[in-house]
Amino acid sequence: MASAASVLPFSGVSADSQGKSETKEAEKGSQRLSVSQLQAWEALGYGMFIHFGISTMDGKENLRGDMPSARYAPPNLDVEQWIRTARDAGMKYAVLTAKHASGHCLWQSKYTDYHIGTSGNKTDVIEAFVKACAKYGIMPGLYYCSEDEHHVMGSETPLHVGWNNLYTTEEYRQFQWNQLEELLTQYGKIGEVWIDIPSALPRDYREKLYKQMARWQPEAILIANAGSEPSILEDRYIQHGWPSDVMTYEMFLPKSAINNWRTMQITPLKPAKTHYRKYYLPVEVCYPIGYSWFHTSDTVRSDEELLKLYSTIRSRGANFLLDVPPDKTGKIPAAFVNALMRLQHNVSLIK
Q1: How far are the Cα atoms of 267, 275, 280 from residue 271, in angstroms, in the given order?
Q2: Beta pairing class for 261-266 and 275-280
Q3: Burial of 201 (0-12, 13-18, 19+ CB in 10 A)
Q4: N or C, where is the chain less crowded by C-beta within 10 Å?
């Protein structure tokens, strides 16, 4: 099987190695990664989103952060089954929820005791995930949520103030920084880092964090999920998610073929004249295989609907990140596995 390094699309990729010239500014763009690096990520095309954690245990997507850590106790945790399923379904990368809004961590963080080390199953899921990805030739990605209903630390969270008045304290932001350092320096190469709810973070912090994550994982795709109605995406990203290497459409389909070259109106942090810069910004679209992110009791979308999602997203030039949650035993249920295999077969028929 391929090693983790060999499936990362950025290792050893350069404009020269692709035989492309990027001497003109319009061909280079102002983004951090080269166009060829981003196109290598685009070539992966299809990935598995894995929502799993303490919220899996009650079947209610508990995001309150008040469930005791001991409740996390999957009896038959099988991370290899997740990644083997992704490989068999034709997926090329996977993104795991290292810490969702509940605040419970799938690794033993030294900055909290709300993690697998105090739970009913002490397996380091991040380590098992990265190793399984290496074994089965899948690029590993990690998700981290900036909303945290357990480690509030004086912040204002969506649970208490709604989505328009989010606020994080300096104490919480340092906590997030420290935890991301653990995730991005202790487990080897990570191909994609997915920061959710970036609007809870001030822009100056987001820019500093982006630069630091790029130091920890220089070849990784760094995503801030400000997913929204595509028609207002550029403005929303500058306000709520910038910077990001990729734009996300969360449960929105592209209405037409995507042009990844975007002219962004950037207003500097310090008072200065607004300027326009050209960026190569691919798109990733995420949907759950059912109708929620954690529920495995969900009705699976029909074969026709899954095929329409796949064909529409891919034909319009975006990557498709399909959420396939494991159940409370720690395995992806047979109904989801079977739906993925039928989707792979149906996709093969239209290619």
Answers
A1: 8, 12, 26
A2: antiparallel
A3: buried
A4: C
What domain range includes position 325? Answer: 4-350
Q: Which residue, among 287, 321, 331, 306, has the nearest Cα to 83 in the 3D structure? A: 331
**Cβ neighbours of residue 197 closer than 8 Å, sequence gap 6 or more:** 101, 145, 146, 147, 158, 166, 225
pLDDT for 290-334, tens place per residue?
A: 988 998 777 899 999 999 999 999 999 999 999 999 999 999 999
pLDDT-flagged residues of the chain (< 50):
1-7, 9-25
Three-state SS at 280? strand
Q: How many domains does the chain have?
A: 1
Which phi and psi angles does 248 have, rounded to 5°?
-110, 140
Q: What is the DSSP secondary-structure string of 105-143?
A: BSS--TT-S-BGGGSS----HHHHHHHHHHHHT-EEEEE
d(CA 121, CA 138): 25
Helix and strand element counts for the chain (H, E): 11, 10
Q: Which of 336, 255, 330 is nearest to 291 (CA)?
A: 336
Start-to-end C-alpha separation, the chain: 26
Helices (H), 34-107: 35-44, 79-88
Give pTM, 2 decimals. 0.91
Measure the CA–CA gap between 6 and 11, rounded to whole angstroms: 7
In this structure, which amino acid lies at residue 214?
A
Q: Return the SS3 of 13.
A: coil
Nearest to 179 by CA among 143, 133, 229, 224: 143
Residue 236 maps to which CATH number? 3.20.20.80
